[in-house]
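In this supplementary section we document a worked example of the pipeline. Step one takes a protein sequence of length 87 as its only input; no multiple sequence alignment statistics are reported here. Step two produces a three-dimensional model, which step three serialises into structure tokens for compact storage. The input and output of this example are shown verbatim.
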Amino acid sequence: MLSQVKNRFRDCRIARMSNGEYCLIRDQGPVKGGRGLKHHETLLVFSRRGLAAKIVELWKQTDRPSVISSFGNVLRRLARARAKLAR
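The serialised model returned by step three reads:
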């Protein structure tokens, strides 16, 4: 797992963007005719909004339907047990 993390953040650096936010970026190469400018990929934005967006992105990548369906089954069983006790 540690090697996957190392590969993900290889050749990365922290940069301050024009709007004042700090980001973890990876340079991808020169801009055509850009006089030294480089394209970059933003991996992580160090702000509340950026960190929340990354958490949501990771949440969407997980296998949530199975977790939600099993949680729903537990709730249904509890509701049935409550109904039986109420009779």
